[in-house]
Structures are given as structure tokens and as C-alpha cells.
Amino acid sequence: MDAAKTKHLSGELEAYAHWFVAPDPAAGGQFLAVTLFAESDNTARVAREVTAVFLRGAGAGELVDDAQLVVSELVANVVNHTVPDRRLAQPGSCRRIDLTFKKYPKWVFLGVADEDSTPPLLPVGDAFPASLVGGLSEAVLPDSGRGLLIAQRLATSVWWSPEERGGKTVWCRFDLDRPGVCSA
Ligand SMILES: Nc1ncnc2c1ncn2[C@@H]1O[C@H](COP(=O)(O)OP(=O)(O)O)[C@@H](O)[C@H]1O
Ligand SMILES: [Mg+2]
């Protein structure tokens, strides 16, 4: 394996080693967890605002636009697609959405957790090559299934993990040292 590939792989492994631990504030890490409810009228707006407040406060303001779009899509998915697991569902109560933000010097992790253990349908491969998409009319592009695709395009990595109590978290990682992205 050449040196560039080895460096890239060790960067990925280092990133994933960080994903499940809370960042240490003394090492420049920041953490925020917020619970929202799917049935509130302003859930998506609050999620976008919290995202901006966290990122600006953590010195990662350059990610605000992309992360707000991604959080909107992930929260909308909880609102539109989730049915809580039977053992988590409370009759007549609202569905929980737990947002997690973690910032390290090199990465930001965004997690959107819900109470439904059904996995999201993460797109594998592209329906159309990126170079062609701009030239296609809206009519031939699919009406649904774009939210996770947008997340995959804007974040460095998108995946999901099951929660022990039931439900799952959809995770995104944004890299802070992307070439061409200037600090705000
Ligand atoms: N949090 C979620 N829980 C369960 N299923 C999900 C969730 N998010 C997405 N999905 C599934 O993945 C599919 C693709 O999601 P997405 O790309 O956002 O497209 P859309 O929301 O337009 O269908 C959804 O149609 C749904 O079946
Ligand atoms: Mg969606």
C-alpha cells in the first residue's frame, strides 16, 4: 500500500476511534446533547438553530450551512419515517429525537437518534453520475430518497448504529481540514 493510502486509512481509523467517546474539553473537544420531539411544530427549525449555535461556539462555523441542511434531512426522516419500537412507545406520547454534537480538533460528529430500530436505507452507489446530475431535468430524478444522498454528499461519512435500549442513531462525520473550506 502506498504512503498516501496508509495515511488516509490511519486518519479514518483515528476518526472512528473517537466517534463513541465524549471529547475532552481540555483537548479542545466540545460536546452537546439535546432532546427534541418529532411532534413539535418547530423541531426542524430548533435543530438547525442548535446546530449553528454549537458549531459557531466550537469554532467550526464553516460547517454551519452544510450541517444545517444535513440535520434538517435527518430530523425530517425521524418525523416522516419512524415508528417507535413497541417497548419504547408510550401511548399518546411524542417521539424523541436525540441530537448529539461532538467536536474534536479535526472532526465534527453529528448524531440523530430515534426510537425505531428499523435501519435507514442508505444509498449505495449513485443512480446517476455526479457530472450528469446538473444536466438532468427534475422529471427524471427520483422524488424521494434524496435526503440521505444529500447527507452523503455533504458529510465525509454517514452511517448508523443500533442503540442497546432499542432505536438507532444516524451519524455523520464532517472533517475540519477539508481543502478549499475556509474557517469562519
Ligand atoms: N430515521 C429513519 N428511520 C427509519 N427509516 C429511515 C430513516 N431515515 C431514512 N429512512 C428510510 O430511508 C429512506 C431514504 O431516506 P431519504 O434518503 O431521506 O429519502 P426520503 O425521506 O425522501 O424517502 C426513507 O424512505 C426511509 O425508508
Ligand atoms: Mg428524507
Automatic annotation (TrEMBL):
Identify the residues that the record assigns to the Histidine kinase/HSP90-like ATPase domain, covering every copy.
39-172
GO: which molecular function terms? protein serine/threonine kinase activity
- List the CDD domains hit by this protein, alphabetically: HATPase_RsbW-like
Q: Which InterPro entries match?
A: Anti-sigma-factor_SerPK, HATPase_C_sf, HATPase_dom
* SUPFAM superfamilies, sorted: ATPase domain of HSP90 chaperone/DNA topoisomerase II/histidine kinase
Q: Record's superkingdom? A: Bacteria
**Annotated transmembrane regions:** none
Q: Which UniProt keywords apply?
A: Kinase, Serine/threonine-protein kinase, Transferase
Q: What is this protein called?
A: Histidine kinase/HSP90-like ATPase domain-containing protein
The organism is Streptomyces griseofuscus
